[in-house]
Amino acid sequence: MNRCQAWLSSGLFLLFLGTCAPGPPQEQALDKKGVPSAWAEIEALGRNTSVKMMMWTGDPLINQYMNGFVKERVRALYGIDLQMVSGQGIEIVRTLMSEKEAARTQSKLDMVWINGETFFQLKQLQALYGPFTQRLPNARYIDFENPFIHTDFQQPVQGLECPWGNVQFTLIYHQQKVPTPPQSLSEFAAFFRANPGKFTIPTEFTGLTLLKAWLIALAPSPEVLYGPFEEKKYKLYSAKLWAFINAHKAYFWKKGETFPSTLAATHQMFAQGELYFTMSNNDTEVDNKIAQGVFPEFARAYVLESGTIQNSHYLGIVEKAANKAGAMLVINFMISPEAQFEKAQPRIWGDGTVLSMKKLPQTWAQKICPIARSANMPPGARLSSLMPCRNWPRNI
């Protein structure tokens, strides 16, 4: 800061009169993509803008949550017009790959809902912006040391995607037709033979997750498959898996000659009684579908004794997004205690929270912790690390 000085020397006054001019204005601290580092500046830049998000739109409850809650709240808080575009997995990858091949300098998307293989592919394409999560104020409530958060299908997240929800795979069965659901592959084999045509595997992400759960069941213990990918182990247990499926697929729906391409089709056949099983990557979907009237009251969910697959899903910002600041505002709200509490409720979505009960203010922890995970799953069927109260302080 400039200072005007007066010097007194040899009885003479040399008084510097005039205006003390201020120094040059400080420049904003920007990253390599021109996004401010300070949150106040990000917020100012992102206000009253449009944000385009590509996401899976196959579930009416999720769509309602996004269009009826998130969209309205970010409009009220920031004046943001959040626009949802339908697309998942390979569609997201193809969109961003096409833009890269066309040398587009600006993407038509700002943010995406991703995890697993999609995250890996987008990293390979260098199509994700970041790291950015450390700039989100609400990220302070997330335990980034949690292995189900800092690693996405063996890929370090490294701030390139922000955790949004945490779920586990469950099998859903017809309680009246299957009073005691199979817990082991030998019990599944007996069920297939006794109930031909009543089981199938959708050829999409959820069906693939079932195969992973069966792979675990084939190993001597789940711990055998822990850690980085090992081709030797994969060849050993995948061979056993395909041998099991090929030995029994004649008992599957349509004699195993064809398989449903979508989970929705599997759900529909289950609801109509054509199948006795369906499945979900969300352990509270059985409650949602009963509440919607999609599933009859006979639907129940469970996990295998050998274990199941738990994972988080994430929000990413596109590397060439036109509105990175706006996307950061939206994501920051979507991981806020308010938004996480809303979507954790089974009647809304039933998606598991990514927030740590130890890090949350007590008032929010008291709201989120007691939320029932599933009314139609046997007690003890949930992974302890997934339950909302897993980090709940003992004195509350």
Word description of this protein:
Helices cover 35% and strands 14% of the residues. The chain folds into two domains: 39-167 and 311-368, D-Maltodextrin-Binding Protein, domain 2, CATH 3.40.190.10; 170-308, D-Maltodextrin-Binding Protein, domain 2, CATH 3.40.190. It is of the alpha+beta class. A hairpin with a 2-residue loop joins β6 (151-152) and β7. The two termini are 51 Å apart. The chain is globular. A five-stranded mixed beta sheet has the order 4-3-5-12-8. Strands 10-9-11 form a three-stranded antiparallel beta sheet, sandwiched between helices. It has a two-stranded antiparallel sheet with strand order 1-2. Mean pLDDT is 88; it is low at 1-26, 383-387 and 390-396.
Chain-wise SSE layout:
Blueprint: E1 6-9, E2 12-15, H1 39-46, E3 50-55, H2 60-78, E4 81-86, H3 90-101, E5 111-114, H4 116-125, H5 147-150, E6 151-152, E7 155-156, E8 162-168, E9 170-174, H6 185-194, H7 205-218, H8 231-248, H9 263-271, E10 277-280, H10 285-292, E11 299-302, E12 310-317, H11 324-334, H12 337-344, H13 362-368
Parallel strand pairs: 3-4, 3-5
Antiparallel strand pairs: 1-2, 5-12, 6-7, 8-12, 9-10, 9-11
Largest sheet: 5 strands, mixed
Helix-residue proportion: 25-40%
Whole-number total of structural domains: 2
CATH topology of the largest domain: D-Maltodextrin-Binding Protein, domain 2
